[in-house]
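Appendix B: a complete holo record

For completeness, this appendix reproduces one full record from the ligand-bound portion of the collection. The bound molecule is HMH. The inputs are the chain sequence and the ligand SMILES; the output is the full three-dimensional arrangement of the complex, encoded as structure tokens. No fields have been trimmed.
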Amino acid sequence: MKTALTIAGSDCSGGAGIQGDLKTFNAHGVYGMSVITAVTAQNTTKVSYIQGLEPITISKQLEAIFEDIKVDSIKIGMLFNKRIITAINETFKNYNLPKIVLDPVMISTTGRILLKGDAIESIVKDLFPLCNLITPNILEAGKLTDTTINNTVDMEKACRKLYELGPSNILVKGGHLKDTACDVLYDGNEFTYFDHKRIDNPNTHGTGCALSSAIAANYSKGFDTISAVKSAKDYITKAIAGGFSIGSGSGPVNHFIER
Ligand SMILES: Nc1ncnc2c1ncn2[C@@H]1O[C@H](COP(=O)(O)OP(=O)(O)OP(=O)(O)O)[C@@H](O)[C@H]1O
Ligand SMILES: Cc1ncc(CO)c(N)n1
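The structure of the chain with HMH bound, as generated:
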């Protein structure tokens, strides 16, 4: 069986972060492992508390996995602060790394900051060059490129700028666009569009986490980037459409879907 590792924050409500990623790996038939960077107290309405873990706790988790188990892909999500990013970067130097998908998580759906300001620079400098793919939403891509993104033309421009920062592929996600949910992929040469209709459903908590971990799972199974993203986009579209409602805010997507 193929494996996948998520390096991300814990979401006790089970929709996003580590919990959402492991559910996604499972749904893809890939053995999931996790390195927890931060523990959040959150639900469908808010993030009420965040505890970033000590860098040593993160390095030790990474070492325990890499010393013993073959990791076929890595998904990176919430990193929270600069010290955590440095610990990951330093530990990574000791191992051969598989394909890495990095979702530069900055703000929760409910508006809480999940990445401290000075950490953005470290993600770009230390981690972007190691990534096979990064998956910012339009707000994150805007912040990283100092631009405002309102449409697919702006998304293309952001892709070009982000590519210069080192990742081999860029996927700017359009979940926060007004009329469509079009994601734009750039491989440094060509653009590919993954255009699906917007689904009118407030239960989109963890969509970004599920998309990036589905792509990582597909990489583990040997898919190339376009096939991995296409299959992940189909998955997340079904998972949003098949949504159920728990909690009084933005509920999670449904991983119990027919595939
Ligand atoms: N209402 C929607 N209808 C269809 N697809 C959607 C919808 N909302 C998000 N998506 C899709 O879900 C995926 C995640 O995109 P989004 O831009 O919401 O990421 P995100 O903001 O990082 O997610 P999160 O809310 O987990 O932080 C993308 O493929 C996007 O196109
Ligand atoms: C732990 C965690 N990671 C990512 C997100 C973004 O959806 C979230 N809300 N919580």
